[in-house]
Specification:
CATH architecture of chain B: 3-Layer(aba) Sandwich
Helix content of chain A: 40-55%
Helix content of chain B: 25-40%
Radius of gyration of chain A: 29 Å
Order of helices and strands of chain A: HHHEEHEEEEHEHEEEEEHEHEHEEHHHHH
Strand order of the largest sheet of chain A: 5-6-12-7-9-8
Shape of chain B: globular
Number of helices of chain B: 6
Number of strands of chain A: 16
Strand content of chain A: 15-25%
Largest sheet of chain B: 6 strands, mixed
CATH class of chain B: Alpha Beta
Oligomer: heterodimer
Largest sheet of chain A: 6 strands, mixed, barrel
Distance between the termini of chain B: 21 Å
Strand content of chain B: 25-35%
Structural class of chain B: alpha/beta
Order of helices and strands of chain B: EEEHEEHEHHHEHEEE
Number of domains of chain A: 3
Radius of gyration of chain B: 17 Å
Strand order of the largest sheet of chain B: 6-7-8-3-9-10
Shape of chain A: elongated
Amino acid sequence: MVFFRMAIRNVGRNWNRTGMIILGMMAASALMTLTLAFASGYPDVVHLSYRRMVGADILVYPNRFIFSGPAGSDVWERRALAPDHPTDALFFHPELASGYLSPASAPPPLFDTSELPAALLGLSGVGRVEPARLMRAYLVVEEGPGREPGRVPVIVRGRDIELDRSYWDIPSIVTHGRYFNETQEQAWVALANSRGLGVRLRPGERLVLEVPLVRGFATDGSPVLDHTDPRTYYFLVYGVFDLSLGDVPLQGLEDQDLVGPPPRVSVGIDSPEVWIPSGTFDLIYEEVSGGPFRYCAQLGVLVESMFHAKAVAAALAEALPDCSVLTVPQEVGLSGLTYVAAFDPSTGGVQVTRIQNSRPVAAVDIKAELAVLAFVVAGLLVVANMFILVSQRRREIGILKAVGASSRDIFVLILTESLGYSLVGSLIGFTAVRLVTLLGLAFSSVTLLEGALLTLGSAALVIGLTVGTALVFGFVPAWAAARTPSVTLLSSS
Amino acid sequence: MEPILRAEGLGRRFPVGDGVWALKKASLSVPAGRFVLVAGPSGCGKTTLLNLLGGLDRPTRGDVELRGVRYSTLDESGLARLRRTEIGFVFQFFNLLSDLTAEENVALPMRMTHMPRDEVAARTAMLLEAVGMSHRARHTPYELSGGEQQRVAVARALANDPTIILADEPTGNLDSKNSTEVMDLFRRFNRERKQTFVVVSHDPAFAEYADVVVWMQDGEITSVEEREGRPS
């Protein structure tokens, strides 16, 4: 106990020595934090925007996208995505709209979560597996100032609105408004993509959706919709979002048109989407189809961090050989997605083109290597600190042994000090890096609540790893110092 | 008088080249309350002998016995316990812990024995008073002169009221005035408290302080000289 207390005191005094070691530990933990943040994709606002948009880290598409020629004696055929299958695959691979080659024996593009291998849920890092909740519907445009009545086709997307609540400042209990079902408070709210709807909606306005009935399913799994007798649902618009990918410079202008810097155009996703809570979505679906939600052209798998994404994606690809697995944030973040806006003088319009430079798989691999390398460097920093800690103090350890400290006492002293240094260093290092990240989040579309939750998990990992590494690698020098005869230690200069 | 410390056929060989015998064969008996000076030229094995007597090092051959306890029967923890309670060390380079104040250095051996806190404080104050360092209790070693550091080291050596104090060239790093003061301190504790001292020095002038002078040369004890009528 004496040596335990002495170790704790030693951490707090002699800042010449303590400061350097804590600095080393800070550097190690900061490096780990950065790596973790990088691998999680959180420092990059693009990741987060898109993450919010799709609501999942891994998207599984219903067919393998193969565009090269058929191999061997397989029979291949050209297929097209069913028109009633709204899917993000078309966003990433717009060429799919014209069809794709696929083995003739491949099953139809239909998923049912009950058909998924049970082992999937047991995979490390899989947080939640759920079908993407997408439904065809019509937005009923009511007459208003500068607005003609009409119907606009939209995609209704069921989302976990809890995540959006703090961002959109949705009160925890909504008690006003005549458009709510009083028994289902907070369930009948909606968020709308202002860019895609073609109708300007305002928060607090009524939003009316007409949803066609589902009369059955086609052989490929797509629903057979009856547009003659739609059901009507009323919502309160709680937020109007703009799926924007940012501004890009406009190209193709003649020199004489240029005054000042090149003009920029805003690039957005004009998908006519209305987001509603998942629970509300399920209720509506049950009413229009007479049964629980079943069809799914896209599967969302939420992973706990990008460290898990590759393993999960690999396992999914193996379990579902006819599917293509895309780890979306990595593709967006690392594959060099760029948007180019070009002015077409003949039409006077602007053509926006999305360019993707590399394969997502390569991006995943590079990430894994970088993460391992960073962790090795951080580990080496910790090890170096531990050896410095012991080698600087050989004489002091010799004195302690001379006045009666046993090998065990010395061992306890050194290990406790290691624990103290690594704990203090990693806390400071982690906090410093994380604060910067959180500051970044404050200016992004991500809620600080999400960031804070991520912080807790990352803190446990980084501090645990730093302290664990310090203890593991502190063990050897501590043991060596404890076993060295005091006469040898005392002779150290 | 029954010896409290006895060394029998002590030898220490260091694995340098073909092996060097720093101490070839030494037998020694130290009766309680005596002041023993181990003298001889540099490199004759005095420090090696002292390290073995203090259990800081293990002999290649022979054994040491302190109050009936043979070192060869003790493991590392047993030796540490013996050093903590039965032996006090004073070194040439003082060897105070630089991060601790004078009083914390003196209190350290007592804290290792789990002595009650107030008792530690009282005894620390008494020891610092005895060595004339009360006024410098809150100073760190860097703020003390060589002579002052050695006084604190003497107080630390006396902390757990040890059976014997072993001092290795305690004046080797001090000027003549401070050397005399430290040796006078030893003599006072020897006289007043009947504290047993074994002091290693290459300076034969300190023989006048000793009851027994052990002369060494080339790793061996050449003579043991009982002295009488030493100055008081």
